[in-house]
Amino acid sequence: MNTLNTLTLNSIDLYQRWLSPLKGFRCAHAAFFGGESCSTAVRRLISEQGLVGGRADIAARFQTCRQAYAHLLGTQATGGRIQGVCCCGPLPIPFRCG
């Protein structure tokens, strides 16, 4: 495994261990579709394909997360209870789960 992959995987590990538990919400993809969060999915993709080889799948995952966020935002605006955070852009956009 090359240095860039190792550095990226270690960064994801640090995020999942120390930052994610503090934020108190799930990514929009996991909140809307269930299953693994974006950080877990990206970690898996990098482990399987490498950062460079998996870039298209990683970008597709983030795009799907953005779409899930847009759907959840629409649900929130209409009085629905499903909320969370979009973790896919440069700034997290908070919303509540449950």
Instruction: Tell me the Rg in angstroms.
Output: 14 Å
Number of strands: 2
Described by its quaternary structure, the protein is: single chain
Largest sheet: 2 strands, antiparallel
Helix count equals: 4
Q: How much beta, percentage-wise?
A: under 5%
Helix and strand content put the structural class at: mainly alpha
Query: Average pLDDT, to the nearest integer?
Result: 83
- Write down the overall geometry: flat
Order of helices and strands: HHHHEE
Q: Looking across the biggest beta sheet, what order are the strands in?
A: 1-2
**Termini, distance in Å?**
40 Å
Helical content band: 55-70%
Name the poorly predicted regions: none
Strand-helix topology:
Elements: H1 3-23, H2 28-33, H3 38-49, H4 55-77, E1 85-86, E2 93-94
Antiparallel strand pairs: 1-2
Helix pairs in contact: 1-3, 3-4
Polypeptide structure, described:
- By secondary structure, this protein is mainly alpha-helical.
- Helix 1 (3-23) runs antiparallel to helix 3 and helix 3 packs antiparallel against helix 4.
- It is built from four helices and two strands.
- The longest helix is centred in the last third of the chain and has 23 residues, at 55-77.
- The chain starts with a helix and ends with a strand.
- The protein is flat and about 45 Å long.
- Strands 1-2 form a two-stranded antiparallel sheet.
